[in-house]
Structures are given as structure tokens and as C-alpha cells.
Amino acid sequence: MEHLENDQQYSGLTVNSGVSQPPSVNPYLRHRRKPMPTAAELVEGILKGDVTQLSRAVTLVESTSPEHQSIAQEVIEKCLPYSGNSRRIGITGVPGAGKSTSIDVFGLHVLKRGGKLAVLAIDPSSERTKGSILGDKTRMEKLSVHPDAFIRPSPSAGSLGGVARKTRETIVLCEAAGYNNIFVETVGVGQSETAVHSMVDFFLLIQLAGTGDELQGIKRGIMEMADGIVINKADGDNINRAQLAQAQFRSALHLFPPTTSGWMPEVLCYSGYYELGIAEVWDMIDRYFDFVNGNGYFEHKRRQQARYWMYESINEQLKNNFYRNPDVEALLADRERLVLENRQSSFIAARDVLDFYFSRIRK
Ligand code: GDP
């Protein structure tokens, strides 16, 4: 069709009809996508320390698809005999405490001794906040480009139990891939500390001084879990306040019952940003490992944790099996309505739904 602009009166301006736009999607891409790896391929890659295969396996662990899960479980089982040979360290602290800054420098410190480091996270809120706050690799600038560091954000979907199980399984895969240092990071604001505590050997609590609520602000339970409390940002004008907080924490710890390991948790000051006191923090952690290896607590705790995860895994799968059953779902919706309308008691409604479920299983 002739363009209006091509009219004589607009001479000097011509518009060509143009060429057709090539598609922006490569039509051959589909054929080039790699097929789903087999469990054997993944295991072989992982045991060789192949990061691509490790990442693919972790993605399957995190997937909710039954097909992916079954491959993942096979991979985990085959990797189990090669796992366990690592130091697992949990790191927690409120947002802004300096976890990422510190993990960056702690990580480099650890890697100077050789070996490899995996940084994992448990952040059950990540789904709610759309995008994990712990997931951003760029927060750990130096580690994220280090060839011996593997950084994986928190699995995002599901309940805390589900997220924690996936991280626990990822630890197995990382260890089989030769990662002999595992950091598990979590935000110190909720239940996730308990989950992290149940999968690590040493639990490090990062605190800040000078907020005026040093002791009040921390849940007692979290402090009791800590094997080490470190007060970050002990630099510049903040040094005195950090030392004051250190003294307060030390005396507060004395009020707690002795730990089952026999280890007396230590309190240290450091600065992640200015890299002050890093070696001291790590010396403390070394002392802890010497101590618990010496008295047998290390092995004991690992076995207790294995048992805990067996039950956690059973609980989670039972719950999923129950709540994802379409008939149960329909009956639940019905009973929920009756309970809300005050026409049936909660206990009778619960019993009815469970009876229905169990009678289904028995068949
Ligand atoms: P996260 O939310 O716990 O991961 O905390 P970040 O590592 O992101 O740190 C929060 C803020 O505190 C950032 O602006 C850091 O630069 C700052 N920060 C971290 N460590 C230190 C430190 O040792 N000293 C000082 N002065 N600031 C720090």
C-alpha cells in the first residue's frame, strides 16, 4: 500500500515498506534443551565436584514435581555414603546485623586454608516477600566470584519444615561434591533458627551493640542455642558499646543452664566490614570443634540430628499425603464450614476427616 508520506507534496521524505521482523525467540532452542539427567549422571557429576550437575541436583531437590523428587531422592541416597565430612556452621542474626558482609569475610578466611565452602540459606519468608532476601548472590561480593565457593539461595516454596528439609538434603549433596565447609544462614527473627540448629554442628549468633535492647530483644531460646555469640560492627565509635554488650552477654550466659555439649559459649566482638577480629572468631570455632571431637559430642549430635530428620521427613510426608488428597480436601472444606457455623465441634470434625483418611489407606 502506498504510504501517505510518499505523496508528491512530501517529496524529500520517502518511507520504505521495510522488512519483516525476525522472531525474537530462537526457533531451534527447543531442540537444544538438555534432556532430564538421570540420577546416575548427576551422582557421577557431583562426586567429581561438577558444579553444574550439583546445581541441577539441588534444583530437583527443591522441585515439588513427583518425577523430580524421585530422581532427587535417588541422588541423595547415592550421595549419602560420601557425605558428612564437613563442618556445618549455622549463622543467624536479625536483618542488618551484617550476616552477608560477615559470611563474605568468614568464607574467605576459611577458604584460605584450602577446601571448599557452600553457603546455603533457610528463609521461609522468601515466598511471601517475593524473592529471597537471602537469595541475592551479590550480597557476598567476594565469595560469589570465588571458584571454591558455592552459594545457593533459600529454597522458596512451602512450609518451614519443607524448606528446611530441602536445605538439609542440599547439605548432603554439597558434601558429596567435596564441600567441607557448609554455612547455613537464616534470619534471626522466627522459627527458622531451630531448623538450622538441627542441621549444624556450630551455631553462631551475630548480634549488634548499641540498640539499647541487647538482651531484651533476643528470644531466650535463640541465645540458648548459640555456641558462640559475636557482636558485629565493633569499629569506630561503636567499639565501647560493643564491649559493653559483650560483657552483658557474657554475664547473661552464666545464668543459663550448662549446654549438653559441655562447651561454654563464648562472646566476641568483631567487625565484618573492617575485617577486624575475624581470625579470633574462627579460632573460637576451631576450639569448639576440638572440644566436641574430643568428648564425642560431635558424633552424638550428628546421630541425634539424623534421627530428628527421619521424623521430620515422616511428618512432612504424612502431612502432604493427607492434605494433598483431593477427597480429604473436599471433606475438610465441608467440615471447616460446619465448625465455623458452630454446627460441629472441632474434635468431632477432625476425627471424622481422619477416620475417612485412615479407612481409605487401609483399603
Ligand atoms: P544482613 O542483613 O544481616 O545480611 O546485613 P548486611 O551484611 O547486609 O549488613 C547491613 C549493613 O551493615 C550494611 O550496610 C553493611 O555495610 C553494614 N555492616 C556490616 N558489617 C559491618 C561492620 O562490621 N561495621 C560497620 N560499621 N558496618 C557494617
If you had to describe this structure to a student in words, what would you say it looks like?
The protein has 363 residues and is α/β, with parallel strands linked by helices. The protein has 3 domains: 47 residues, Single alpha-helices involved in coiled-coils or other helix-helix interfaces; 213 residues, P-loop containing nucleotide triphosphate hydrolases (Rossmann fold), CATH 3.40.50.300; 38 residues, no CATH class. Helices cover 48% and strands 11% of the residues. It has a 7-stranded parallel beta sheet, sandwiched between helices. Helix 3 packs across helix 4. The longest helix is centred in the last third of the chain and has 27 residues. The chain is globular. About 2% of the residues have low confidence.
Helix content: 40-55%
Quaternary structure state of the chains depicted: single chain
Q: Output the structural class.
A: alpha/beta
Associated small molecules = guanosine-5'-diphosphate
Mean pLDDT across every amino acid position: 86
Global Rg: 27 Å
Number of domains: 3
Give the neighbour order of strands across the main sheet. Answer: 3-2-4-1-5-6-7
- Largest sheet properties: 7 strands, parallel
**Architecture per CATH nomenclature, i.e. the level-2 architecture of the largest domain:** 3-Layer(aba) Sandwich
Provide the CATH top-level class of the largest domain.
Alpha Beta
Quick one: overall form? globular
